[in-house]
Amino acid sequence: MKTNIQEGVILIPDFSGFTEFVFNTKLYTGEYIVRELLSTLIDMNDRYFEISEIEGDAILFYRYDEQPSYQNISGILKKMRNAFNKKIEELSKSLSTTIDLSLKFIVHYGTFSQYNIGNFRKLYGKTIVEAHQLLKNGLAEQPSYALYTNSFLENSKKQEAAFPEEGFHQEEVGAIHYFENIN
């Protein structure tokens, strides 16, 4: 049996406020808005990450990389966040509605494998489960943030840039950086 076990980065952008949005928005309108927002995130990725899957309001991105770049990834997150907010403004204006969604990111690092089922590529491993578990956390004070796990921070190229001091450090998990504090 051939396996594809490698080290890499898991990135999950996820919408905060999604459940309430779905329950309070007409089906066609909601689908259109979510499709536009997810497409915006994919476009801002600039093919840096591969897409494993899209589920509801989240995208499971990954990149095999033994020494990931904090600077590159934080730059992509900022681009995604800015484009997401701009798209919400555009859609709110063109549809004459209020879109109460924000964006959070989980950035994790570890070992995982990949397998194929038909035309689908699936990721597997403890790292994938951990990243998904971090989506539901009570650590962040604001809905819009990036959570960089200790595993990611320890394996990234730290010499590239100093990590921002803004935000909140949760010793057993990692660092939460609020977008309002990141320039």
Concise summary:
By secondary structure, the chain is of the alpha+beta class. It has helices at residues 18-24, 27-44, 70-95, 126-135, 150-155, and strands at residues 5-16, 50-55, 58-64, 102-117, 120-124, 145-149, 168-170, 174-178.
The fraction of residues assigned to DSSP E strands is 25-35%
As for the CATH topology, it is Alpha-Beta Plaits
User: What is the C-level CATH assignment?
Assistant: Alpha Beta
Radius of gyration: 17 Å
Distance separating the two termini: 47 Å
Q: Would you identify the regions where 5 or more consecutive residues have pLDDT less than 50?
A: none
Pfam families: DUF2652
Protein name: DUF2652 domain-containing protein
Organism: Chryseobacterium lactis
Characteristic terms for this protein:
183 residues, Alpha-Beta Plaits, 8-stranded mixed β-sheet, DUF2652 domain-containing protein, single chain, Uncharacterised_Rv2561
Please tell me about this protein's structure.
There is one protein chain. This protein is of the alpha+beta class. The chain has one domain: Nucleotide cyclase, GGDEF domain (Alpha-Beta Plaits), CATH 3.30.70.1230. The chain is built from 5 helices and 8 strands. It has helices at residues 18-24, 27-44, 70-95, 126-135, 150-155; strands at residues 5-16, 50-55, 58-64, 102-117, 120-124, 145-149, 168-170, 174-178. Helix 2 runs antiparallel to helix 3. InterPro entries: Uncharacterised_Rv2561. Pfam families: DUF2652. It comes from Chryseobacterium lactis. This is DUF2652 domain-containing protein.
